[in-house]
Amino acid sequence: MKVALVHDWLVTQRGGEHVLEALCELFPQADIHTLVHRPGVVHPRIESRPIHTSVLQRIPRIHKLYRHFLPVLPQVIESMRLEGYDLVISSSHCVAKGIRKPPGAKHLAYVHAPMRYMWDLFDDYFGPGRASLPVRVAAHAVRPYLQKWDRESTAGVDRILVNSQHIASKVQRFWGREASVVYPPIALDRFCQHSLEGLGQGGYYLWLGAFAPYKRLDIALEAFRHLDAPLWVVGTGQEAAKLTSGPLPSHIRFLGSVPNEALAGLYRDARALIFTPEEDFGIVPLEAQACGRPVIAYGRGGALETVSPLTGLFFDEQTPDALVEAVHRFEQWEPLFQPADARAQAERFSRSAFLRAVQAEVDSLMGAPSRPAVRAAVP
């Protein structure tokens, strides 16, 4: 069986790329097709494959500018030709699932989210204060077209897998399609190998992630202006200049990008993880729990599936005041927390469970008619 793996773009190593890397393990002879590739930034298992890119790859500095091409990405992905493949597996949060499969082939789409910046998170990206006026006007102009394409391009997909029940509900709402839930592979080994003794010694709260609009780091920064507790922030991204430009209290520290080998120590020494986005799934809370640390999370999205009442607390409104109140509740709840409960919760989301579930879905798809009845596959 000849397999093509399709991914939106390869310019960073984040959650979507971890899924692709696991798919490379499952299909070691598969080719990779992507819009843009920045060599050297993703896992060696991905880099070692034949990687086929689109016409966008010829544009200078495209790995920094690719977001500006969003209105034409549907045409670009549809122009990419796949020939001779029996199975196409797309890993998609933007347009990868819209690629045209060869005649007679099957298409299995692993969907991280429908095109979030054109659906329910539109205002987080293009609302007032989130983008310049020309960008906002352009986004409003192309939104109906991109929504229509995002929905209609699923016609070429035989089976849809998603990373959470939260995204399954969005797929049903926005696309009118059902989906199987296969939780993504979480590389927990480097976090679970440490002892659960002596945790939380740093005394700080930890925020970790990309500085993207929907991550809502601004909520954490504003909340901790009014809290007598240190906040350490790990990450960088498109909103870095905006979020770090103003004066901040001395107890808020920006650490920038941190090497992977240092993350476990940061998690272990933190008092708790602060998780402010409505995330499609969210790997960071599971990494923190694997290290035996609790989570204070916004109570929507994937966090509701990865954080339990034994391992964290939720706040119901995406506001600084709600987070402040949650931190105060956490201080009362903290003595009840057991690190072993957090690790046990994280270990439910293993890489092996992901590989088994995807293999079962592929076996079913290749031996069954298109668009069969779907079921949930959970670890």
From TrEMBL:
Glycosyltransferase subfamily 4-like N-terminal domain residues: 15-190
GO molecular function: glycosyltransferase activity
EC supergroup of this enzyme: transferase
Key words of the record: Glycosyltransferase, Transferase
Stretches assigned to the Glycosyl transferase family domain: 205-334
EC number: 2.4.-.-
Domain of life of the native organism: Bacteria
Lipoprotein found in the keyword field: no
Protein's name in the database: Glycosyltransferase
Source organism (scientific name): Archangium lansingense
